[in-house]
Amino acid sequence: MKAAIFRGPGAVELGERPDPVIEAPTDAVVRVVLGCVCGSDLWYFRGESPHAVGSIGHEFIGVVEEVGAEVDTVSAGDLVIAPFIYSDMSCPHCLNGSTISCVSGGNFGNGVIDGGQGEAVRVPLAGSTLVPVPGSGHSETTLRSLLALSDVMSTGHHAAVSAGVGKGDTVAVVGDGAVGLCAVLAAHRLGAERVIALSRHPQRQQMARAFGATDIVEARGEEAEQAVLSLTGWVGVDAALECVGTGQSIATAFAVARPGSTVGIVGVPHGDVPFAGPFFRNVGWRGGPAPARVYIPELLQDVLAGTIDPGLVFDYETDLDHIADAYTAMNERRAIKSLLRVGPL
Ligand SMILES: [Zn+2]
């Protein structure tokens, strides 16, 4: 089959991988319909984080082709969403809601396990991992939003849940990438009354507003902190959602959080993390990689009802033959998030 292959920094190319087959009775083979490129794939592309040579891509929706003997929750022909991590849903961590720490789980597209940027995927632990989508004849808009649940929308939601966003809250979202924009949507969905988005890009500001942002702050660093604090009468926000992972963005999130609040951090930290100040202000933080498998069934209902449309983050589209373009467009910030049209529904 055709699949994107990570060959090293700056080199993601179309290549060949063996057609996936059922290897364990808990496996399924899924034919990919839509895949995409994650912001975290760019770190590998830029050489900022290591990645094994081989398969890449961890977000996809597709149609089940074949299931192993022990898989009874999905069957051939089902449209399914794959969370970015496969999990057994039965170990102590899964039962505690932390599917990303599953003792028998793992990552799609890690060089060895098939990735979502390919024509098909062998899904381990398929019965407990894949989420079947009810109904049929879903629109293109719905399909794109279902794809967003695989990682980006689940991760934005996790930021909001981690920070305890509730009805009537004032929320700040640091980061205007696809995750940050989904965090705006998630905060709005959870009832936040005011959502302050930090963004300097007109197109992203527009999408943030479409997702429920009520205020835009264009500054960065200390200037941004002052601007957000000023908007809250110098109290600080009820919940700060950090969706970048750099020292500066984490510092900004903590600085704008009101005393006693919780910062939701989903941007994977890069470099030094400033914790001393928040410690003395009793500001806590939660977060980490999203347990997408736990969130998808709930978010799925809203996508199917048409009340949320996270697929709007996909503003660039290509196919596997042009996989390098998908990366370059995001790397050069011409695209918020690249979608890959892989196969027919
Ligand atoms: Zn587990």
List the helices and strands and how they pair.
Layout: E1 2-8, E2 11-16, E3 28-36, H1 39-46, E4 54-55, E5 60-67, E6 79-82, E7 85-86, H2 92-95, E8 106-107, E9 120-123, H3 126-129, E10 131-132, H4 140-149, H5 152-162, E11 170-174, H6 178-189, E12 194-198, H7 202-210, E13 215-217, H8 221-231, E14 237-242, H9 247-256, E15 257-265, H10 276-280, E16 284-287, H11 292-305, E17 316-319, H12 323-331, E18 338-341
Parallel strand pairs: 11-12, 11-14, 12-13, 14-15, 15-16, 17-18
Antiparallel strand pairs: 1-2, 1-4, 3-5, 3-9, 3-18, 5-6, 6-10, 7-8
The structure holds zinc ion.
Zinc ion is lined by residues 87-88, 91, 93-94, 102-105.
Structure report:
With 345 residues, the chain is of the alpha/beta class. It contains twelve helices and 18 strands. Strands 3, 5, 6, 9, 10, 17 and 18 form a seven-stranded mixed β-sheet that branches. The protein has a six-stranded parallel β-sheet with strand order 13-12-11-14-15-16, sandwiched between helices. The protein is globular. The two termini are 17 Å apart. It binds zinc ion. Zinc ion binds next to helix 2.
